Structure formats: structure tokens, C-alpha cells
Amino acid sequence: xxxxxxxxxxxxxxxxxxxxxxxxTELGRLEAVSKVRAQELARAKAAEREVSExxxxxxxxxxxxxxxxxxxxxxxxxxQVRTEGARREAAEDRRRLSHIxxxxxxxxxxxxxxxxxxxxxxxxxxxxxxxxxxAGKTATAMTGSMTTSPNAFAGDYQLYCSLNCIHRHxxxxxxxxxxxxRLLRELGAQYTAALxxxxxxxxxxxxxxxxxxxxxxxxxxxxxxxxxxxDEDMRSLLFIANVADAHVAG
Length: 250
Known about the structure:
Elements: H1 2-123, H2 131-144, H3 157-168, H4 170-195, H5 198-201, H6 208-212, H7 215-224, H8 231-249
Helix pairs in contact: 1-3, 1-4, 2-3, 3-4, 4-8
Region (Disordered): 111-131
């Protein structure tokens, strides 16, 4: 009986090391698998960091390109706004000049009508002196008093007579010539400011005739008007600038 029990204990003792060995083997395998998984996880994290860095770089480049595009669009919009503003200002200047010219023509017509009526009343039965000859002499005398050549505006003596008539009457000068002088002075001041010459600002402002007869000023004015001013417009403006100089001097 005792011998049988001893045999059972011996069998149990022999089986225990085998189970322990199996357990240790399994534990080693699990440790190896764990190490492999840890290495894979480390590689995955490294790959994730690399992808994140690449994505951040791509995002930065895209944002930088978008910013550059938006800046170009903003510059283009600003240029368009400035161009439209210059066109509107040029159109407004032309409208004001047209309005003043229309007023001058109306005054000219009234002046001619009054001159004709006065001549008819004063001359009576006397032989009338040809009107064109008288007007031509008057225009020549007036033109000679200007700071330009005598033949510069030989065909505009009627307009010159009208402007000079307005100049001699304070109320008409205040209503018609002073706004025109202000407009011409404003354009001259804008041109001077556009030159960005600090020393020029300290000098005495040039006469309107010398300013408007300057090639550089005419080029600047044509560019500002976006090509809307013709050669005839520039000649008329130069002529009016002469009258404005006489008005200021008077």
C-alpha cells in the first residue's frame, strides 16, 4: 500500500518539470511577440510623425501659396479701384469743365447780342465798321497781353472777348472764373504732389500757363484722364489757363 502511494508521488514529481518547461517556453514566446509588437508600434509612431510633418509642410506651402494668390488679387483690386477712381475724377473734371464752357458760351452769346444792340443804338445812321475787323483788333490786343505767342489762339477771339468781359465784372468773375481757377489750381497741386519733390513744395507755385504748357504735365493729365482728353481739349485748357492767369493777376 505504501509502495503504491510512493509511486504516485514519483510520477507527479516527474511531470512537474515538464509543465514548468512548457510554461516557460510559452512565456518566452509571449515576450518575443511583445517585443515584436513594441517594435512595430515604435515604427508606426515614427511613420505617423513623419506623415504629420509632411502634412504640416504641405499645409504650410498651400497656405503660403493661397496667401500669395490673395495678395495678388488684393493688389489687382486696389489697382482697379485706383483706376476707377481716376476715371471718375477725370469724368467729374470734364463735367465741370463742360459746365463752365457752356456757361461761358451763354455769356458770350449774350455779350455779342448786347454789343450788337449797343452798336445799333449808338451808330444810328453812321456807316458801321465791319464787326469782324473790330473783333479781330480787339482779339489781337487782348492776345498780346497774355504770356503766350500772339498767334496762339487767333481763331478764338470771340471766346477770349467773352472771358475778358467776365474778368472785368466782379460778380461774373466770382460765379464763373473763380471755380475754373480753383479747378485748374487743384489739378496743378495734384500734379506737384505726384512729383513727390520736397524742394518743389517750398517754391512759389508756377503760373497756370507755364504749368499747362509743360509737356510733362500734359502727359500726366492725359494719363489721369485715361486717354479721354484730345489735342483740342488740351489746347482749350491751355487757352483757359492763360485767361485764369490774367484773372488771378487782376
